[in-house]
Amino acid sequence: MGEHALTVGVEEEFLLTDPVTGAPAPKNTEVAAAAREAGIDLQLELTSCQVETSSDVHSDLGELLAQLRLSRRRVAQCAIDHGVHLLAVAVPPTVPEGYPVTDTDRYQRIAHTFGMIAHEQGLCGCHVHVGVPDRETAVLVGNHVRPWLPVLLAVTANSAIYRGSETGYASWRSILWRRWPSAGPPPYFASLADYESIVAMMRAGGSILDNKMVYWDVRPSESFPTVEIRVSDVPATAAESALLAALIRGIVGVALRAIERGDTGPAVSGELLRAAYWNAARFGLDGNGLDLADGRVVPQENLLAQLVAHIEPVLRECGDHTFVTEAIAALLARGNGARRQVRALRERDEVADVVAELARATLEG
After folding, report:
1. 163: closest CA among 22, 48, 50?
2. What b/e readout covers 155-188, taking b as 16+ CB neighbours within 10 angstroms?
3. C-beta of residue 226 within 8 angstroms of C-beta of residue 141
4. How far apart are CA 324 and CA 315, in angstroms?
5. Taking a C-beta distance cutoff of 8 angstroms, is the pair 195, 189 a contact?
6. What is the model's pTM?
7. In terms of pLDDT, which residue wins out, 2 or 81?
8. What pLDDT is recorded for position 2?
9. Between the CA atoms of 318, 321, 327 and 328, what dihedral angle is there, to the nearest 10 degrees?
10. What's the CA gap between 167 and 362, in Å, rounded?
């Protein structure tokens, strides 16, 4: 099927913060306008302290990484020009004064319907799109991706500090995000019709207002011919976002081969999957996780190694294997965003140090 042709794109959500206090700053419309003048199309998010970038569609991972780094630098400069900083962090590390909802009709309707869930948002994730032939295939790919979602969450965990304190979780965003009625791991779907019938019931019951509010961590994109994986915190560095994209492309590539053989994916129980999510959110890469294939408790690093072995043929065909192995080695040695945050806070018990570390990581490379 030519895995080398698998295309990938990345969307990264960022927090805008006050340069002195590190608190969320409601400046997304101003920064987005400046970015448009610089030729960058920024998306506004639910709260006015967030912006989202979107990469081009790429086949070459090196080109994707170069664009992610350039995009972060350019948007960070637009933020500085308007008196705020750009942080790749999944929850605000400082005490926020509030999360004003972005003034669009749709976001205001979401805020009215979902109340405090919307008003306590300010959560930043990373969404990876991989091209697939059609929506039916996207749904079936999701079944194959489901068992690996906790591993992807552990790799990217970047929200250990919230409101100036350690949360006790590597990914506090994951815990907060699942308050939405459509968030978290998706069910196992037999077909596109199965998927659409459940979405229609959710819409009829009011737990989502439109199909874009299907917040499951794997879904067929409503805008592109892709499967979208959205389990991750926004990674601390552009290199970690590129690593995430490579891992996801590998999983999707293996899934497409399996689907061609008539394999609709392992029916992992929702209860076990939610338990594995908790382990990943709690410990990140630094603790144990659940091996969903045989029910064993094993170090999360071992599960990451299993994932790389599972997708190795696709990584090699895409030319990503060397990058992935080197990026993982660097990540394990240095730590992901969660480990960086905790280390920075514990050195002097100053949340300003966490903000400074995040600012460095955002533009690293």
Report:
1. 22
2. bbbbbbbbebeebebbbbbbbbbbebebbbbbbb
3. no
4. 8
5. yes
6. 0.95
7. 81
8. 40
9. 120
10. 21
